Amino acid sequence: MIFEVPLTEGNFGKSGRNNHVYIDTFVHALPKDIVGGSSRAFPAPRKITLEYDGYYCETDIPTDRRTGKPRPFFRARGFIGRFFDHVGARPGDVVVFELVSPYRLRMSLK
Fold it and tell me: Among 14, 24, 39, 105, which one is least packed by beta carbons within 10 Å?
């Protein structure tokens, strides 16, 4: 399965520290056991691997501390920031996620 997500200014933030891609349009296609707690101290039972150009990261999806609902992005924002830098991502670009197995997503820029 292929999922495409357009990037906005909000994905980068004014200080460049947001470093996330909204996954709410395809989170339903991901395993439910990759959702963890609101902080790194409460990780998910399983992780999903994100990859691009030979770089890999295991991550999960955090939950909102107040509502307990899954947040619409992956916890590994530093990895996403490095991906943005590596591919030269800018607002208006589209990130492509390819689900290569239930617990592995390949990322690229369209």
Answer: 14
Return the bridge partners of 107, or none. 97
Going by C-beta distance under 8 Å and a sequence separation of 6 or more, which residues neighbour residue 23? Answer: 3, 5, 30, 61, 72, 73, 74, 97
Residue ranges and CATH numbers for the domains of the chain are 2-109 (2.40.330.10)
Contact 109, 96 (CB under 8 A): yes
Helix, strand, coil: what percent of the chain each, to 5?
20, 30, 50
* Consecutive H or E run containing 85: helix 77-87
pLDDT for the residue numbered 13: 74
Mean pLDDT computed over 70-88: 95
Token readout for 70 is 């899954």
